Predict the 3D structure of the following.
Amino acid sequence: MPSSTTDHASRRVIGARAALIWGVIATVLVTVASVGVFLVAPEDADQGAIQRIFYFHVAIALVSLVAFAVACVAGILFLRTRKLRWDDVSVTAVRIGILFSVLVIITGSIWAKASWGTWWVWADPRLVTYLIVVLIYAAYFVLRSSVDDDRRLRFSAIYAVVGFVSVPLSFYSVRVAQSFVHPVVFTSGGANMPNSMLIWFLISLAAMLALFIALLEVELVGRRTERALRALTLRLESS
Amino acid sequence: MTGGNQYVVAAYAVIWFLVLAYVVMLGARTARVGRQVEAITRMLDRKAAESDTPEGDDG
């Protein structure tokens, strides 16, 4: 194979450029958002400094749901096309979604302790339904590790699609059941906050979205490279 | 530092620590891939050396 063709194939397999670009964008946005949240955003008249947890807490929560949506779409695409790249996207999105969900639960508990005086409120539908979503997606990896190779990809894709049903249930249960203690900031009437806070929330949301895409791209590069190396090793050993 | 600020710092420290830990985990995977590339390179070098050796040239 000509070297130029090999180089082109390597670039296509690895695709590291997108990961690098998104990594830079995420780093810049997270830095800007952090500076803005701590130094520029006005202090909330009601909650004081504690309210600053809101910016990243809610942004990470929304992006965790986006991650599970990406896993669902990638699962559907895998079932339709049987292309490994969609299984890679699905499993990686679930993994990052779990990471973000853990961050949401920890930061939410810290905020709850500071604001309500307790780490967790079992009677609140938003907290409990979100925890159920996290446990459903944690079970995804149990399923994935317990099924043999032939069925693993198909079952994982089906689970990613079916599991996503829990996401809108969690999102809307709050509005239907009237959350007891957890505030609902965004309603059909808009955001319940001044523009000077909203702008830093939107920047934080963009930062978390960029971080999700960057981590997704880096993980996908790793998975593609490992697979290419395994194939290459097998070819070398058999030649 | 007031009580409220302590909670804010704790929350953001958790976020940055866990994200950093995840990035370190990805870095460890990259290092492992690098070691695999080195192993393949050594395998290729060995095969190239074997093919360069003339047939019957064993003393």
Observations:
- The two ends of chain B are 81 Å apart (CA to CA).
- The first helix of chain B runs from residue 3 to 52.
- Residues 17-50 of chain B form one domain.
